[in-house]
Amino acid sequence: MGAPRPPRPGHRAARTHGGVPSGVLARIPAGPKFGFLFIASLGIYAVADLFVLSAVFVLAVTAAVLTRTPLPRLARLLAGLVLIVGIVVLTLGLTTGWVAAAVSGLRLLSLCLFAYAVSLSTSFSEMLALFERVLRPTRHLGLNPAQTSLALSMTIRFIPEIRAKYLEVREAQFARGLHNSPVAVLVPLIVRTLESAQEISDALDARCFDSAPAPGRAPRSTTTAPAPPPG
Amino acid sequence: MAAQNPQTTQNTVLVAVFAALIAALGLVPPITVGIVPVPITLQTLGVMLAGALLGPWRGMLSVVVLQVLVLAGLPLLAGGRGGLGVFLGPTGGYLVGWIPAALVIGLLVQHWALRRTGSTARFLAMLLSTVLGGIVVIYAFGVPWTSVVTGLPLSTSALGSLVFVPGDLLKAVVASLVAVSVHRSYRRLLGGVRTAAR
Fold first, then answer.
1. Which residues fall in a compositionally biased region of kind Low complexity (chain A) (predicted)?
2. Using one digit for the tens of pLDDT, what is the confidence trace for B69-127?
3. CB within 10 Å: which end of chain B, N or C, has fewer?
4. Mutate to test the interface with A, among B1, B8, B10, B13 (most CBs of A within 10 A)
5. Are residues A34 and A109 in the same domain?
6. What was the pLDDT predicted at A225?
7. Could you tell me if A109 and A51 lie in one domain?
8. Is residue B31 classed as helix, strand or coil in its secondary structure?
9. Predicted pLDDT of residue A7
10. Quick check: A158 and B36 CB within 8 A?
11. Are residues A155 and A75 in the same domain?
C-alpha cells in the first residue's frame, strides 16, 4: 500500500488528504457543488451528441486539473476507472458500434471526473457538515445526531486499530502453521473486536456520554435547534 | 431512559466497530479479472459478517456509516478508492447494494438461521442467508446499474459479473463459518437481548 510520502516543500498547498484542498473550486461551498453534480449527472445522460459530450469532457478535465491535485495521485485515482471504461468501450464498439461506445465512454469519464473534482476540492469536514445539514430532518424519525457523529468519528479512529489487530492475529496464526485460513484469523479478530467494543461502551456509559437526550432537557450538543418533542 | 441508554451506546459502538472492520478488510490489495472487472475484495465478506453478526438494523447501519465516510471522500474502499466518483461509476451499483445486502442477511440470520438447532443445519441456513443477501441482492443492484450507466446490454453485464460468483461463493462460505463460530461464543449478540426485548 502506498505509504504517505512526506509533502515536498513546493507542494504544500497541493495535499488533499488531511490537508486543505486548494484551487478555485475549493472556494465554492459544498452545497452548490453537489447540486451541480446532481444536475450534471442527469444532463450528461440526456445528451447523446458526440460533439457536446466532448466539450463536456474537456470541461470535466479542466475541473479536475483546477483542483491542483498532483498528477501522479490523480492518475492513481483514475487508473481503475480508465481500465473499466476501456473494456466497456471495447465491448460496446465490437457489439453495437463505435459511436455508441464513444458516447458511453465520454459520459462515464466526464461524470466521474466531475465527481472526483468535487471530492478533491472539498475538505472532509466540509462534506460531513453538509451531510449533517442534509440529515438534520431525520432527527424527527428518531435518529440521534450525537450518536451519528459518535459512530462516524469512532469508525475512523478504529480502522488503524483493527488493521493492527488483524496483522497481530495473522502473525500468531502463522506461527501456529495456520497460513491461509481466513476463518482462523477472522474469528479471533472479531471476538477481540467485540470485546473491545464492550469495554468502550462501558467506558462511555461510565462517563455518562449524553447519547439519548432525556425529554424536557436540552441536548448537550452545540446546536441551537429546539429539542425534539417527546414521544 | 436510564435503562435504555447503555443499550444505545453499545449499539452505536458496535455499528462503528463493524464499519471500521469492513474498511480494514479493504486494506488487502484487490484482484481484478473478467469482462467487466469489479475488483475482488474482502470487503463484501465484511458486509456479510456485519449483517450476520449484528442483525438487520445494526448491520445495515454499519454499512451506511462506512459509505457516508466514503462519500465524504475518505479512501476506505479496496485499493484506496473513495469519493463521489466511485458511486457514479459503472460499478456503483455493487456498492449501493451493500446496504440492502446487510439488511437481508441480518433478517434471514436473526429470524431463520439462528433458530436452527443442529450445527449442520445452522451452517447451511447461514450459508444460504449470506448467499442470498451477499450475492443475489448485491448483483441485483450491480448488474442493472452497470447496464444503465454504460449502455451495455443487460446480458453482457450479467455475463461479466458471473466471473465473480466463484470468489463470492467462497466468501459466503468463510463468512458463514466465521458467523456460526462467533455466535457460538457470543450468544447475546443477536439471540438473548434482542428477542427478549421484543
1. 211-225
2. 888 878 788 767 777 878 888 888 999 999 999 999 999 999 999 888 888 999 999 99
3. C
4. B13
5. yes
6. 44
7. yes
8. strand
9. 43
10. no
11. no
A64/A103 same-domain check: yes
Q: What is the DSSP string of A35-78?
A: HHHHHHHHHHHH---HHHHHHHHHHHHHHHHHTT--HHHHHHHH
Q: How many CB pairs under 8 A join A and B?
A: 191
Q: Are residues A34 and A62 both part of a single domain?
A: yes
**C-alpha cell of A85?**
471504461
C-alpha torsion A216→A220→A224→A230, nearest 10: -30
Decide: A100 and A92 in contact? Cβ < 8 Å.
Answer: yes
Residue found by looking up cell 497460513 in the block? A179
Helices (H) and strands (E) in chain A, counts: 7, 0
Low-confidence ranges of chain A (pLDDT < 70): 1-20, 142, 179-180, 209-231
Q: What DSSP state is assigned to residue B81?
A: B
Q: Which of A48, A102, A101, A111 is closest to A78 using CA atoms?
A: A111
Rounded to whole angstroms, the Cα distance separating B116 from B164 reads: 30
Does A66 share its domain with A114?
Answer: yes
Query: Phi-psi category of A127—alpha, beta or left, where left has phi over 0 and alpha has psi -120 to 50?
Result: alpha
Asked if A115's CB is within 8 angstroms of B85's CB, the reply is: yes
The CATH number that domain B7-185 falls under is: 1.10.1760.20
Contact A168/A196 with Cβ under 8 angstroms? no
DSSP B77: B
Sorted by where each begins, the domain ranges of chain B are 7-185
Query: What b/e string do you get for B86-117 counting C-beta neighbours within 10 Å, with b at 16 or more?
Result: bbbbbbbbbbebbbbbbbbbbbbbbeebbeee
Q: Which domain holds residue A187?
A: 131-206
Distance from CA of A6 to the nearest CA of B (A): 18
pLDDT the model gives residue A21: 76
